[in-house]
Amino acid sequence: MTDDTMSNTAPAEVTEPAVASGSADQSGMPLARVSGKPLVDLPKDLYIPPDALAVFLEAFEGPLDLLLYLIRRQNMNILDIDVSEITRQYMDYISAVEAMRFELAAEYLVMAATLAEIKSRMLLPRQESEDDEESDPRAELIRRLQQYERFKKAAEDLEEIPRMERDTFAGSAALPRLPNSQPHPEVDLKEILYALQGVLMRADLFTSHHVEREKLSTRERMSAILSVLSGDSFVSFESLFTPEEGRLGVVVTFLATLELIKEQLVEIVQTEVFGQIHLRARAAN
Amino acid sequence: MNEENLRRIQAITEAALLAAGKPLNLDQLRELFDEHERPARQVMEHVMCQLAAACDGRGFELKKVASGYRLQVREEYAPWVGRLFEERPQRYSRALLETLALIAYRQPITRGEIEEIRGVTVSSNIVRTLLEREWVRVVGHRDVPGRPAMYATTRQFLDYFNLTGLDQLPPLSEVRDLEEIGREIEKNMQAEIEFEAGGPAPEPDDVAGDDAGDADSADHQTLH
Amino acid sequence: MNEENLRRIQAITEAALLAAGKPLNLDQLRELFDEHERPARQVMEHVMCQLAAACDGRGFELKKVASGYRLQVREEYAPWVGRLFEERPQRYSRALLETLALIAYRQPITRGEIEEIRGVTVSSNIVRTLLEREWVRVVGHRDVPGRPAMYATTRQFLDYFNLTGLDQLPPLSEVRDLEEIGREIEKNMQAEIEFEAGGPAPEPDDVAGDDAGDADSADHQTLH
């Protein structure tokens, strides 16, 4: 992006001061113009210092930009280009650049050819009968120049819009200590089942274990009993039962207790025959 | 909602905008409140007005941009604040700005279409820079051979340039209708002939006359 | 130094502190001014007092810290401001879900037993996460060497999954036929991944809801 700094200064340095486009209105123009004999002074032939040429070319965003510059410098209206004069000046630049053996973008050469063609067609005698809009060979060039110029202007407008880090800065303040409130992930029960299925498939649990629905509530009760027994002390066997649960609940608790004893998770103590049975967690010792 | 409550919402809003350091929209701001205390949109809009007023005479202002509201340094203080930063603010080349302008005003647009209007190749660097800055993005592919990417500007582009929408971009200058140009040229020619023949000269105004039938005036107006 | 001048220095100071995003000391602040307009240290100190007072009742306050002054969001607003930084909750890993499933179905169960069935180590993170979430708890220790903790699910686990008891979990024999569920979950995950990969675009429309034009909109419509 070296060309941006040059773009603003180079044309003025290299040539006589460019006429601002704003002043290039019709007031200074003759009331009429004769082809080949405009009634305004032609600018003196361009002189470009050789070492400035590269800079000069970089200052332009292509052939349309160069053409616009030439037109503005001539005080011409885009709609009324003197093609021969513009073509002559354009060719001067191109040949100067080529003589210096600077690399020239292909687009510049294409434009040179286009200008030459328009110029030659302008020289041909006009055929009055043909439809007018199509017959002016300059029309397409004028359309492109106008189109390019409006976006060139739009780019200049864009440059003027106040923007961040140049005309303003986002305001931010330091943060106080913030509460640590990392939300928990959501889990669907199905995901757990799916995960379990994966485990079971791998472990081949389907064949080696028979886990029944009843068994599951037994295991839940085992956990419940274990948490009751989490202390160091003995708990009476009866206190584990909740009569309100009914017969089924009592059976489940009983099965759970048996399973806990079998798995040696609890120890069971009875000090006398038919006396109180006490349990406590083995691990609690 | 009583005064005290409004003041509290305003302070929380200011705190949140300064904590975020980037624009937040009304709903993002409302989301900060628990459901039972969440201000209605109208209340929030009122609070934003109050907050904007409360920034009068301070170093910053409340600015509405595309993504929401932002507290930012007042432009008039940028010369001093800018000295905080060693690096000069980045300048963008004309090539980049012209490309960006074409994407902004003509979106969605392909690289080929940009090149056609600018008359030169658009370098890959420029496109990459614009994409990296997240000012433009690819919004699709034109259904022509090669299926070239179509570019459009982003919300970040508007935020960066302090705009709330594309309609805030400066209007494009007018382009004269080609048919009109043709007629004018014809008229000029006619006048020249008459001039040579000693006839009356046309009014200069005719040449640059206002064009009601502007082909491109459609987007000229919509950009206002 | 007159009042107006002081106010200007105060505004510039405030602007600079908000733009800097880090503490600035008095000399750094004074450096922002050209030599001929640079306030004396005492003036600057006075300005800081004024600025601190001007932050009364607002969302932020002036704090003096080791390296200078900074503007900071008031702590009382932290509960609201903190929500800005809440991250989207992550998903739990497959390993965690498998561990949870085994604890649910095989409780009370030790870590070693889970590892035996899963065939891989259970990381401490997983166990900690499940304990922190209060979905599992230690119900005792198995009386084997090392006295490993035995895990069981909790009431909160049942509540979260809307179960009244573990017996409401599908029996293992049915878990076998979960292909349908599996496909469904895969599909959901895929959709989520795509949503997350969608980039910044899928911000809710309400961002531009209160604006005239939507920056991100690809077509010319928004220009109208």
UniProtKB/TrEMBL annotation, chains B, C:
The keyword Transport does not apply. Pfam families: SMC_ScpB (PF04079). SUPFAM superfamilies: Winged helix' DNA-binding domain. Residues 192-224 are annotated as: Disordered. InterPro entries: ScpB_csome_segregation, WH-like_DNA-bd_sf, WH_DNA-bd_sf. Keywords: Cell cycle, Cell division, Chromosome partition, Cytoplasm. The keyword Calcium does not apply. One of its GO terms (biological process) is chromosome separation. Residues 203-216 have a biased composition (Acidic residues). NCBIfam families: SMC-Scp complex subunit ScpB (TIGR00281). This is SMC-Scp complex subunit ScpB. It comes from Marinobacter profundi. The gene is scpB.
